[in-house]
Amino acid sequence: MSREYDDVQLSTPRFGARTLTKLALTVSLVGGALMAASPAQAQGPYERGPDPTDAILEAGRGPFSTSQTSVSSLSVSGFGGGTIYYPTDTSQGTFGAIAISPGYTARWSSLAWLGPRIASHGFVVIGIETNTIYDQPASRGRQLLAALDYLVEDSSATVRSRIDPSRLAVAGHSMGGGGTLEAANDRPSLQAAVPLAPWNLTKSWTGVRVPTMIIGGEADTVAPVATHSELFYSSIPASSEKAYLELNNASHFFPQTTNTTMAKSMVAWLKRFVDDDTRYERFLCPPPSGLSIEEYRHTCPSS
C-alpha cells in the first residue's frame, strides 16, 4: 500500500536568489499584476515551453523537437564520450544542460531512452560513456562534471550556443547515481541533481547544497533503499531542497526501461530548479500520488 508524508522537521525549504525573485514575482501577480501584465511580462526568464500538464509530462516526448550527435572518446578529456541530445528550437533563448551517467558495467545505451525525453522538455542532455565500465562513484562524479565542462566549453557551436552555462545539472543510475551525489557535493553551483537507484559506500552527504531528488526502487536488492537512497536523502541538510521518491515494487534496474513516473518527476524537478519554472511546483508539492509510488518525502512548505 502506498504511503506519502511530509518530513515535518524539514518543512522550510531553502531558496536561491533566482527563486526568491520568482516568489516575489508570483506574490505580485497574485496581488493583481497578473491581470495587467502581458504573457511575456508574466513569464520568468528561464521558462521554456507551454504551460505544463499531466499529459505533457507523461507523454513519450515533450513539446520540443530534438536532434542528437555522438561524441567520440578520442575528442574529449575526463570522460568516455557519449551522445548529446538538444532542442532544435533557437527562438526561446538558451537552455539548461544535464549530464547523465550509467551504472556499474553499463553503457549509455542502458539509459538512452532518457536522452531525447528530457531534451524534448527544453534541455541539452549529454549521456556519457564512462572511462571504463568498472569506474566507481567518485570517478563517475568527476566524469559527470568533465562532461558538463565539455558541453559549455568545447562542444560544437551548434550545441554550445544553446546552453546557459549557469544552469547545469547531473543525474545517473546506480554507481552513476552515487556519482551524481559526488558531483553535487563537489560543485555546489549546480542547479539540480537526480540520483536514480544510487549506490555509494559513503552514506552521509551533509555537504550537499544542490537541490536533489533521489529516486529509489522499493524492491531494489542491489542498492536497497534502506541502506542507500533513504540514508542519502536523510543525510542531506534540512536547509537544502530535496525530495525522495520511492517507486512501488521497482527493482534496481527501473531506469533502464521507460518509466513514466520516474521521467515525470525527474523533468518536473529539473524544470523547477534548473529553469526556476514555478509552473512545475504543482507536480512536486503537494506530494505526487498513485499506485506506482510507494513513498514520497520532501521539503515542501507546510500547508
Write the layout of secondary structure elements.
Elements: H1 17-36, H2 39-42, H3 54-58, E1 66-71, E2 82-87, E3 95-101, H4 114-119, E4 123-128, H5 137-153, H6 157-160, E5 163-173, H7 175-186, E6 192-196, E7 212-217, H8 229-235, E8 242-247, H9 260-273, E9 293-298
Parallel strand pairs: 3-4, 3-5, 5-6, 6-7, 7-8
Antiparallel strand pairs: 1-2, 2-4, 8-9
Helix pairs in contact: 5-7
Fold and architecture overview:
By secondary structure, the chain is α/β, with parallel strands linked by helices. It has one domain: 3-Layer(aba) Sandwich (Rossmann fold), CATH 3.40.50.1820. Helix content is 29%, strand content 19%. The chain is built from nine helices and nine strands. A nine-stranded mixed sheet has the order 1-2-4-3-5-6-7-8-9, with helices on both faces. The two termini are 24 Å apart.
Keywords:
nine-stranded mixed sheet, Rossmann fold, 19% strand, alpha/beta, disordered N terminus, 303 residues, globular, 9 helices
Task: Give a brief description.
With 303 residues, the protein is α/β, with parallel strands linked by helices.
